[in-house]
């Protein structure tokens, strides 16, 4: 699948709600409208994989009422958006732990994964109960088990093998966007973002729309990505286009 992989830390729901004089959870409700808008716009903007940080493993520390609302919203999203996602060729998969997701939300999520499995226009990955450190630790455990069982030599515990277990073959994000002004990664895709371009938007997630995504992508396309190499000379660039 060619096209860009964009990952988004959807931040600022609570602050947005507070600024409107609303309870925090109303920011999450409004955030679902942003998810819908960005998912609709992504394929036309050249995005083929979109990874959204919907619930971090640290979010369990939030009040149970807010956590409950978030999973209620997730379930509602999976049920209500199903037909449109299928019609638009969106394939939805989840990354993160599944064993703590409330049963009704998990059922809806897995149903959506099955129903959208044939989608080829956009791969929408929802990070739910996700922790990047936990994902890396899990991959290391998998290789360590193989070593303990004598199926793998320690020298064969390579970066490539770890990469495959962590990314499951999904290319690293080209661009990571975090909304609402904070500049940190919050345990999101730590391994995968080694060469990802970072973009911090001041806009809170509930106000983030396709124009903001288009702006981030325009900024990204102006950047020169070097992946540790030296910048190409003008002559080399000319040879490359011939
Ligand atoms: C961060 O804002 C946002 C979240 C923890 C949840 C994001 C969830 C959604 C947008 C809705 C559900 C998602 C889907 C895919 C249906 P915050 O609450 O930390 O904001 P704050 O920093 O202003 O408090």
Describe the structure.
The protein has 242 residues and is an alpha/beta fold. The protein has a single domain (4-131, 168-241), classed as Decaprenyl diphosphate synthase-like (Undecaprenyl pyrophosphate synthetase), CATH 3.40.1180.10. 45% of the residues lie in helices and 16% in strands. It contains nine helices and six strands; from the N terminus they run βααβααβαβααββαα. It has helices at residues 13-19, 24-41, 64-80, 82-87, 103-115, 132-148, 159-167, 210-222, 234-241; strands spanning 4-9, 47-56, 90-95, 122-130, 175-178, 197-200. It has a six-stranded parallel sheet, with helices on both faces. Helix 1 (13-19) packs across helix 2 (24-41). It is globular.
Write the layout of secondary structure elements.
Blueprint: E1 4-9, H1 13-19, H2 24-41, E2 47-56, H3 64-80, H4 82-87, E3 90-95, H5 103-115, E4 122-130, H6 132-148, H7 159-167, E5 175-178, E6 197-200, H8 210-222, H9 234-241
Parallel strand pairs: 1-2, 1-5, 2-4, 3-4, 5-6
Helix pairs in contact: 1-2, 2-3, 3-5, 6-7
Condensed summary:
The chain is α/β, with parallel strands linked by helices and about 240 residues long. It has one domain: 3-Layer(aba) Sandwich (Undecaprenyl pyrophosphate synthetase), CATH 3.40.1180. Helices cover about 45% and strands about 15% of the residues.
């Amino acid at each position: 699948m060619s096209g860009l992989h964009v990952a988004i830390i959807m931040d600022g729901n609570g602050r947005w709600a507070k600024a409107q004089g609303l309870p925090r959870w109303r920011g999450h409700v409004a955030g679902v409208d942003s998810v819908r808008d960005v998912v609709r716009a992504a394929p036309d903007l050249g995005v083929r994989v979109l990874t959204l940080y919907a619930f971090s493993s640290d979010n369990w520390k939030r009040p149970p009422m807010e956590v409950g609302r978030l999973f209620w919203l997730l379930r509602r999203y999976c049920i209500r958006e199903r037909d449109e996602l299928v019609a638009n060729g969106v394939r939805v998969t989840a990354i993160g732990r599944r064993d703590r997701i409330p049963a009704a939300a998990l059922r809806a999520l897995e149903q959506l994964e099955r129903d959208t499995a044939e989608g080829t226009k956009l791969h929408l990955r929802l990070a739910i109960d996700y922790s990047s450190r936990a994902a890396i630790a899990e991959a290391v455990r998998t290789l360590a088990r193989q070593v303990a069982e004598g199926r793998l030599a320690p020298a064969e515990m390579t970066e490539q093998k770890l990469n495959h277990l962590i990314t499951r073959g999904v290319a690293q994000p080209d661009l990571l966007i975090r909304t609402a002004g904070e500049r940190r990664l919050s345990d999101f895709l730590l391994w995968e973002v080694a060469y990802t371009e970072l973009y911090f938007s001041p806009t809170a997630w509930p106000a983030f729309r396709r124009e903001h995504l288009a702006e981030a992508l325009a900024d990204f396309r102006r950047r020169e990505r070097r992946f540790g190499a030296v910048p190409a000379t003008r002559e080399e660039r000319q040879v490359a286009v011939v």
